[in-house]
Amino acid sequence: MKALWLLPLALLAGCSDAKPNKTRLVIQRFFGACEAEYGRTTDIAKAEGECGIMTAMINRFEAENPDIHVVENVVFWPGYDQLTAQLAANDAPDLVTMHGSVIADYQARDLLEPLDADLTAIGAPPASLTTAARTAVTVEGHVWGLPIDTWAPLWHINMNLFRKAGLVRNGKPILPRSPEELYAHAQQFRERTGKPYLVQGAANEYAGFTRNFYTFVMQQNGTLFRDGHATFATPEGRNALQLFKTIYDRDFTTKNQDYSAAVAGFLNGDGGVFLVGTWMVGTFDAKSRESTGALANGGYTVMPYPKLFQREATFADGHNWVMPRDSRRTPEERAAALRFLKFFAGHAKHWARTGHLPAFQSIIDSPQWRALPHRGNLAILATTAQPLPKQVRRQFPLETIVGTEAASAISGAKPIDRTLSDMERRANEVLDNL
After folding, report:
1. β-sheet bridge partners, residue 274
2. Which label site among 116, 248, 355, 381 has the fewest CB atoms less than 10 Å from its CB?
3. Is 328 left (phi over 0), alpha (psi -120 to 50) or beta?
4. Following CA atoms 360, 361, 362, 363 in sequence, which dihedral angle do they give, to the nearest 10 degrees?
5. Do residues 106 and 98 lie in contact, with contact meaning Cβ atoms separated by under 8 Å?
6. Could you tell me the sign of the dihedral formed by the alpha carbons of 211, 138, 328, 29, in that order?
């Protein structure tokens, strides 16, 4: 997610040959390196966090499939520069973790294998996926990967401060249902706690600005892209930026914190609501079970973004397994890759403990998943989480453009209308040169 991970040289595919009488399977992933803690763990239930659970799952797969030698490449997040170089050198891994927002870029260049029939054959048909997960891997009527999860930005709430602010009813946080109500809640929160309502990582951190902008345009039924072009300079776009400019101008948010400082600030009680993704649910929930600290004694809950406009919607993305094309991949290697995908789908309930939304509807519907902390609050994301249209390519570069421009408008460095015009122009310069 946010961290930049070290790349263990010993795990590079180029440094490891297949063992005798074993099929070599190269799995390339992000989520960090934690060999010191989980390098020998095969009990998935005892692993914690993205890195721990992923490492234990791969270890368990290799232990249960002794005829397969797994070469595990752990790449710097998000790993696409390395993948592009590998594909150019005709040295493709067999399976790669890829964001749904990036799939169209590789699919358009014929660099991925479609997996529709394969997913059905391994017992994970597209129909078994959530709407959000299925949308993430579907391009031009074909499925291009096995979804791992769906992630979305959330409202992580300090319930201890919400109680002090008088914003709790029947044990649940009172959330705003309009921009005006948000301002009123934020004013009441500051008056009663002396702290800002929102905690945001806003310094040198532009992804959050983009996710907020997309989410609140979507909630207004606005159109962000049409016919392959950005359409940001709209009344809906203006409303989305004005919302956060008002929050900034009235000191309802922390300022000048980078991502790490914002995480630490929320843990220290710097504000009421931290706008950050699903990947932090486990960390914050663990802190709420301690006896000291800002979130102690059950002082934490988490909710989807509230509906401030016409409809429930939250911008979302997700992680997926994709299979890069490789003319040199043997039938045995491809079969080994599909065996891993089947294994992962069969153990997907463990990945659900990371805080991300499960990719399979059956897991979301299960009492076991809903019994996990806060999952009942988040289940609605299976239908309200909304990625950008799959035909929108270069979503990572666009994220930087939208975020930097939004930051300028919110801070007052540039007028909102000029910001939207510049944001749209710069995005379309990228999209016009695909």
Report:
1. 156, 199
2. 116
3. alpha
4. 60
5. yes
6. positive
pLDDT digits (tens, 9 = 90+) for 369-394: 999 999 999 999 988 999 999 889 99
**Are the beta carbons of 83 and 326 closer than 8 angstroms?**
no
* The residue type at 321: W
CA distances from 191 to 184, 187, 222, 276, 349 (A): 11, 6, 34, 24, 43
Q: Which two tokens stand for residue 50?
A: 């993205």
Distance CA 6, CA 10 (A): 12
d(CA 312, CA 336): 41
Rg of the Cα atoms in the chain:
22
**Coil, helix or strand at residue 157:** strand
Q: Which has the closest alpha carbon to 348: 85, 127, 109, 150?
A: 150
Q: Which token pair is 141?
A: 């009527």
Is 247 in contact with 253 (CB distance < 8 Å)?
A: yes
Rounded-to-10 torsion of CA 177, 183, 189, 195: 130
Tell me 40's DSSP state. T
Q: Residue 157: beta bridge partners?
A: 273, 301
Backbone angles phi, psi at 5, to 5 degrees: -105, 150
Quick check: pTM over 0.85? yes
Q: Smallest Cα–Cα separation from 152: which of 236, 234, 93, 208?
A: 208
DSSP 223: -
Task: Tell me the CA distances in angstroms from 130 to 30, 173, 238, 304, 395, one per residue in order.
Answer: 23, 27, 32, 17, 22
CA–CA distance, 248 with 23 (Å, rounded to integer): 56
Consecutive H or E run containing 138:
strand 138-139
**Helical H segments across 66-115, by residue range:** 80-88, 100-107
